[in-house]
UniProtKB/TrEMBL annotation:
The lineage of its organism: Bacteria, Pseudomonadati, Pseudomonadota, Alphaproteobacteria, Hyphomicrobiales. This is AAA family ATPase. It comes from the Bacteria.
Length: 188
């Protein structure tokens, strides 16, 4: 575990739906565990997977100014992990508005240093991944949304991000690359 007061480091894994964020996070977790490096992994989708979703009015008595239940759940989870000695967090989500997303994450974990990793894939690879994952009535809507997200992210200025092209690369290769770039793995 980290020494008391060690800075918190967050790898924020972002990209369009279906690009492989969850798969990469699972693989990075396995690589870190194999190396004996303590870490936590949280998928942002799980922070607000509730029905009915509470709005600002319902959240106000719990946290004035909160707009999303994620703003309450992340600090609750992280507080436990931090008390257990953790200082590394892998967090994933689409994160279309990285500046906004970083602000609510930093409100929850003020002492954190966030490294943003933007995953990209070509349309053909993204469609193939979505075909393996999506089924049922929502498939076409999800494909449309993912392609829009990918286009928007491809057009943005990636300054300050680690941009990772995923086409033709295995999860193991990507995990080693990202963890190396972030300095989370010892140099061998």
């Amino acid at each position: 575990m980290a020494p008391v007061g060690a800075p918190v480091e967050i790898l924020l894994i972002t990209g369009p739906a279906g690009v492989g964020k969850s798969t990469l996070c699972w693989e990075m977790g396995a690589v870190l565990a194999e190396a004996g490096i303590a870490h936590v992994a949280i998928e942002s989708d799980e922070l607000d997977r509730v029905f009915p979703k509470p709005g600002a009015e319902e959240l106000a008595p719990l946290a004035p100014g909160a707009r999303d239940v994620s703003q309450l759940n992340l600090p609750a989870l992280w507080g436990t992990y931090r008390a257990l000695g953790h200082n590394r967090l892998i967090m994933s989500g689409v994160m279309l508005h990285v500046g906004f997303d970083k602000s609510w994450i930093l409100a929850a974990i003020p002492e954190a240093r966030i490294t943003v990793v933007r995953l990209r894939a070509g349309d053909a690879a993204l469609l193939a991944r979505l075909d393996r994952r999506e089924a049922g009535a929502g498939r076409d809507t999800q494909v449309e949304r993912s392609l829009r997200q990918a286009k928007r992210m491809a057009d943005e200025n990636g300054t300050g991000f680690i941009v990772v092209e995923t086409d033709g690369r295995s999860p193991t290769e990507l995990a080693g690359f990202v963890l190396g770039k972030a300095g989370w793995l010892p140099v061998s």
